[in-house]
Amino acid sequence: MDLHVFFLPFLAPGHMIPMVDLARVFAGRGVRSTIVTTAANVPLIQPTLDLANADASLRHPIQILVLSFPCLESGISQGYENLFAFNNSEITPEFATAINMLEAPFKQLLRAHRPDSIVADIFYAWASDVAKEFGIPRLVFHGSNTFFTVVSGALRRLKLHESEEAFDVPGLPHRLRMTWSQLPGFITKPDDFIERLDDGYRTSYGMLVNSFYELESDYIDLVKKGTETKLWHVGPLSLHNQLAKEKAARGNTASISSDECLTWLDSKKPRSVLYVCFGSLGQCTTTQLHEIALGLEASDHPFIWVVRYDGELSEWLPERFEERVTGEGKGLLIRGWAPQLLILNHKAVGGFVTHCGWNSCLEGVSAGVPMVTWPLFAEQFFNEKLVVEVLRVGIAVGATVCSNHKEKRGLVKGEAIKKAVDELMGSDEEAENRRKRAEKLKELANKAVEEGGSSHMDVSSLLDDMVNLKASRGI
Ligand code: UDP
């Protein structure tokens, strides 16, 4: 296949990680794949690409091209080239400016390398116009799922206003009740940066979704019936990391060695461990961290807890927690980056407390692990609905406020955490049925990416389209 594709990931781990996986999928099918990113982001993806490029059967190694990040011009401090570097998950006006300013250097790379198509994250509103200028298709990489596309579309038509009353979202295959406080700012108060995204999406060639048909078929059918937009479901992309070293290298350098992590997990009974992680950007107040510690200790299941807070342990851990809990081998704290895929796919893991970032939900689904859902910001409350009410593989901890600011979210008490965790890890009929549904989804997820599976075939049909388009341009 003689195709050259540029991949332009948004500069946040939750967007970059799956797009790197996608570039690997394309490369595995013989496509020349080039990832375009900024210098400070290269070390985050290089280890994964080195592993991928070690595969001798790859026709073209995956390349990286570097854009210069406009720190000075956008007013961002040197080296802050990824949302991961900031204290909260918000796309600030400065960061939005920087993202928009990448257009000019990106065009220079297009001129120099003349790829046949661009896969650009949904956050690059300008990418469709640029692709048009170069006479090539732009594919939108959507960081979320089709359920969210459908529900957010229905909400827009509702013309909501602020209220405390829960409301039904009409026109969906399932009954869904939401509240205003669960909605992200980009739905309730979209700014210019967000408003522009719709145009980029509408004028694109189509959209790539990290999900799979069997997971949300009702919603995928609904979108396909209702719009002309071409959609390809190509996930779960995380399943393209089968080797332990691929799982461990994904996204960043882990703050714990794989050996230490696996030895700890190996010492635990099957399905006994709870994994607690709030994604790459999810931070909690020290009061909230304290309540989590109380909840985990009280529920008495072994746990791995990923904490993204640099301060002293004494600021948030209950007194003598280390003596009673972590020191006793009942809990493992990872302060920094965890090898999430390695952990989730270990047989000792039986539950996942997640902030409901889409990658984490899908990684939980792919590993067959039921979840306690604790959404924080962005579209995470929608993902919670999908996991808890549609797929029925999760229990909501009871979070109520969607916000990028940890102080505004309201406190979830230790008792509520213990209750949800005990229910999830329990052995009553409901818990067993939830586990069976999770196992079934794992099986479907794995089938989707195998040869002949729905996602595998969507990738094939997309690549056929790209080849035909190139031929029709007479190149
Ligand atoms: N992740 C990880 N280790 C961590 C935190 C996150 O490997 O300590 C990965 C996780 O596996 C997922 C991504 O980072 O692939 C986070 O994406 P998600 O959509 O779940 O949440 P976000 O970080 O975008 O809020």
TrEMBL record:
<dbReference type="Pfam" id="PF26168">
    <property type="entry name" value="Glyco_transf_N"/>
</dbReference>
<keyword id="KW-0328">Glycosyltransferase</keyword>
<dbReference type="InterPro" id="IPR002213">
    <property type="entry name" value="UDP_glucos_trans"/>
</dbReference>
<dbReference type="GO" id="GO:0035251">
    <property type="term" value="F:UDP-glucosyltransferase activity"/>
</dbReference>
<feature type="domain" description="Glycosyltransferase N-terminal">
    <location>
        <begin position="5"/>
        <end position="237"/>
    </location>
</feature>
<comment type="similarity">
    <text>Belongs to the UDP-glycosyltransferase family.</text>
</comment>
<feature type="coiled-coil region">
    <location>
        <begin position="421"/>
        <end position="451"/>
    </location>
</feature>
<protein>
    <recommendedName>
        <fullName>Glycosyltransferase</fullName>
        <ecNumber>2.4.1.-</ecNumber>
    </recommendedName>
</protein>
<dbReference type="InterPro" id="IPR035595">
    <property type="entry name" value="UDP_glycos_trans_CS"/>
</dbReference>
<keyword id="KW-0808">Transferase</keyword>
<dbReference type="Pfam" id="PF00201">
    <property type="entry name" value="UDPGT"/>
</dbReference>
<keyword id="KW-0175">Coiled coil</keyword>
<dbReference type="InterPro" id="IPR058980">
    <property type="entry name" value="Glyco_transf_N"/>
</dbReference>
